[in-house]
Specification:
six-stranded antiparallel β-sheet; Thiol Ester Dehydrase, Chain A; 29% helix
């Protein structure tokens, strides 16, 4: 992972327990792979341990919305590349785009947009990001050049490869 870029990536091996009888990654497991990769990306590139942060501050993030497009299957024991980037960092929300590729990054397998809301774990209510968090996240914000819908973005990505 290169901390000088706003898009971070990692390699992941698709494991047997996560696959369906056709040796494809189960649809529900894509989200697990994406979220685990994003957590790794944050830790490696910002040194923010979200679990320590939650324990020390009583704050964390919950997913408020996911939009996912399954484009090509990921297969058992296949190495895939997952990249992630923050499309938007707001007062209370972070919108992240994650993509799963084959190992050569010439076949896009899936695209996910996740909306994360910063919450106070005690009150279970949304709360603004601190100045320190905004200072950490704003420099790596990577907005798209124009406002487009998720479906439009998926079509844009399909045309690019």
């Amino acid at each position: 992972m290169d901390s000088s870029t706003k898009t971070w990536e990692s390699k992941v091996l698709i494991r047997f327990p996560d696959c369906d009888p056709f040796n494809h990654l189960n649809n529900a497991r894509y989200i697990d792979y994406f979220i685990n990769a994003r957590e790794d990306h944050i830790m490696a590139n910002t040194n923010l341990n979200i679990y320590q942060y939650a324990a020390q501050n009583g704050m964390g993030w919950v997913v408020s919305k996911n939009q996912i497009a399954y484009l090509k299957p990921a297969f058992l024991m296949e190495t895939v590349i997952i990249d992630s980037t923050a499309l938007h960092v707001g007062d209370r929300e972070v919108i992240v785009e994650m993509k799963m590729w084959n190992e050569h990054k010439n076949k896009l397998k899936a695209v996910l947009w996740s909306n994360f809301v910063h919450i106070n774990m005690k009150t279970q209510r949304p709360e603004n990001h601190s100045r320190e968090l905004l200072d950490l996240f704003k420099p790596v914000e990577n907005p798209l050049p124009s406002a487009i819908s998720f479906d439009e973005r998926v079509e844009q990505l399909r045309r690019m490869i």
